[in-house]
Model the fold of this input.
Amino acid sequence: MKRLNSQLQQDGAPLELILLIRTLLAACKEISFRVSQGALAGVLGSTLSENVQGETQKKLDVISNQILKDILSESGYVKAISSEEEEGVVPCSEDGNYLVSFDPLDGSSNTEINSLIGTIFSIAHAPQWMEANDPSAFLQPGTQMVAAGYVLYGPSTMLAMTTGRGTHLYTLDKTHGGFLLTKDNIQVPEQTSEFAINTSNARHWEQPIQDYINDLLAGSDGPRGKDYNMRWVAAMVGDIHRVLCRGGIFMYPFDKRNPEKPGKLRLLYEANPMAFLMEQAGGVASTGEGRIMEVMPTEIHQRVPVIIGSKEEVETCVSKYQ
Ligand code: AHG
Ligand code: MN
Ligand code: MN
Done:
């Protein structure tokens, strides 16, 4: 089986980017090990602190963030990082050439039930003019990403990654610690009968998404003329993995609970990397108003509505917004 290194070389990734990705994945392998120890190592449950988004941090949120931060800031490849668990950007090496944004542990409420969780990341060039502690360089649209991916800590530890030449899936071989290519150039089916949305928020949604979901729920008796199935992992990384593997549509739309939070998911380290992976696999990623990867961020923890997945289904959903 092909190793990650060979696939990255085949896709034309520059050497320094390959070295950075390998460094980042070394951190993810350590997180994978810590996650798998679970209650034996006392890593489950919550801390007493909240992150900048006002969410109670799980112990594994803090541990995963620290592992990534330590390894990336010592690597020399990274000028600065932004993380869900850090209020501001973290300056790393003045002469680092890359910026890394990450959600160290996505779906961390699942740690308590031994269910799917993962790490999501995106990588962009650090502009020459940038001071390492300047957050403005992170405010680039997703189209500027040079690589993105996630590591899913499930029954097996898997990596989905793109450097802009297709989306490939790798599986961690824990006997020697390497990521091996297990599916190259994923193609997400354009049609689907499976959707993922947290319907408990339905009363807060805007009209277009209400109308769209009502059509799906009407099944073969409604305008779509077929029955749909629903899945919700409560970890974007798990839901997007399913969509990449067999198609589907995943939504976390704007809702009216808090107008300052347009949706729940964060642009830099959740929506953008997943959008890049999905587009590279032939899928579509929209806010309802436009392409996620073209949103110009105004702050590093910015939230966006997310509608992502099989091409025809996302287009049908987005047509409700026009
Ligand atoms: P995080 O654990 O990094 O804060 O992210 C959780 C996110 C996302 O992964 C998931 O799709 C969503 O929150 C689940 O939201 P609900 O609480 O509405 O199920
Ligand atoms: Mn998350
Ligand atoms: Mn998280």
